[in-house]
Amino acid sequence: MKVTKNLAKIISKTLKFLQRRLVIVVLLILIQVVWMTYMVTVIGENYKLVQMLLELFSLVVVIYLVNKEENPAYKLAWTIPILIFPLFGGLMYLVLGDKQPARDLRLRLEESISETEFLLGQEYHVIENLKRENPQAASQAVYIDQYGGYPIYQNSNTKYYASGEAMFDDLLQSLRSAKHYIFMEFFIVSQGYMWDTILEILKDRVNDGVEVRFMYDDVGCVDQLPYKYYKELEKYGIMAVAFNPIKPLISTAWNNRDHRKVVVVDGHTAYTGGLNLADEYINRIERFGYWKDAGLQVTGDAVWNFTVMFLQVWNAIRKTDEGFGAFLPHKHHKADFPGKGYVQPYADNPLDRETVGENVYLNIINSSVHYVYMYTPYLIIDNEMITALCLASKRGVDVRIVTPAIPDKKAVFLLTQSYYRQLVEAGIKIYQYTPGFIHAKCFLCDDKIATVGTINMDFRSLYLHFENGVFMYQTEVIPQLKEDMFETFEQSQLITKEMCAGTLPKRLAQSMLRILAPLL
């Protein structure tokens, strides 16, 4: 009897597992991969001319890669598999090698951005004021404006949150106080206390005539929300879209995810940071020890950047607005916004070869004089970033990096640790956050400059995803973030050279992972 019951439980769990949307999609793709590999192998073995053509095509792809204007690590990650499997390596690159979104989505996004970029003009007096105060900070702001498309502002306030639960309280208050509109954009939404609480507030606001728009990433939520969940939200009067819906096909479309976290309330208040809408982010449940995250509230003129970046993507997916004038910061807040310092929300996307997120980090590192501290959940970096970090340390800058002690992905954690030795030998202090998992993405430099946002120090965030951050100069956040960082250093374990050694199998695994890092 017990055996029968246990067998029934196993069968029930197996059926539930197989019915999960992610499992179904992955299985269908695996079938396609196996079929494609089998067909290419069989045809190649039976038709020598076809085999020669496929191998020649792989060689052409390798030559193309070598000469392509591309990150060397990405080239290497593809070149080695193509040379090892010349029969179908070139075909796999043809199918999976493109880092840009699918053509239809890319064209709609490019059109939406080009139609609205004139709304983000830089005010001359603001950048001139910053040039007088700090030319290096001004050069960073000019770069973000010219190549990211987002200007820098005065008349804006910022508030830093050292945990998800701290930001959650203020976020709820802002949502409840909304009178005109709420825009929300998130990578992960998981049903539980956090999302249920927010959803009830959104329903209430809709009933009071507030316009609510909600955008979530389809891959980020594939195992968290029901299929086509946006239709359920529409029943409550919430306008909703799923970003880049996944299809059970071998495609690069899987790569380009909306990793942004943005909330805009009435055009004058915004939130961003590392937080997704799931209970672990506010430590309502425990997954990997204590979940340390970072959040940011922005009020004032700078919120306009958030509003436009949200609407650009929204209108590419679901054309709704002919103009954005109804969403200007002062439309529903007539008073001025007295603020301290300079605030520049910005976004990055894979539509072009301009890696704004990475370049903002590099500019901060390269311009540092006394110190540069950073939080990152993943440390998977290319040679350019390694060189910048090591060179900063060698010229006397106090460089500190905080990574998790309890990882969310073991392979990624193993890869993160593979960079420790080289960085520690250059004098960089690496801390592992002992209480648990650090998911924050923050940079702090010389008591003057900071950035907080969604951009991890890994290839996916820096090259493939849609991301956002906030560059700040001399704002209220600077001392708040510094205090939090020193508290975090005290709670963390400093990595020594001896701790970087590792066993031979571990080092071999790390070496293999390093080669494939850009593809993970």
UniProtKB/TrEMBL annotation:
Per the UniProt record, which EC number(s) apply here? 2.7.8.-
CC per GO annotation: plasma membrane
* Localization annotation: Cell membrane
Primary residence:
membrane
**Keyword Nucleotide-binding tagged:** no
Q: Which GO terms describe its molecular function?
A: cardiolipin synthase activity
Q: Which domain of life is it from?
A: Bacteria
Task: Report if keyword Transport is assigned.
Answer: no
Q: Where are the transmembrane segments?
A: 21-43, 49-66, 78-96
Keywords on this record?
Cell membrane, Lipid biosynthesis, Lipid metabolism, Membrane, Phospholipid biosynthesis, Phospholipid metabolism, Repeat, Transferase, Transmembrane, Transmembrane helix
Per UniProt, residues of the PLD phosphodiesterase domain are 254-281, 434-461
Tell me how this protein sits in the membrane. Multi-pass membrane protein
GO BP annotations listed: cardiolipin biosynthetic process
SUPFAM superfamilies named in the record: Phospholipase D/nuclease
Q: Which InterPro entries does the record match to this protein?
A: Cardiolipin_synthase, CLS_N, PLD-like_dom, PLipase_D/transphosphatidylase
- Please name the top-level EC class of this enzyme: transferase
Q: Which Pfam family, any one of them, does this sequence belong to?
A: PLDc_N
* Annotated protein name in UniProt: Cardiolipin synthase
Gene name? cls
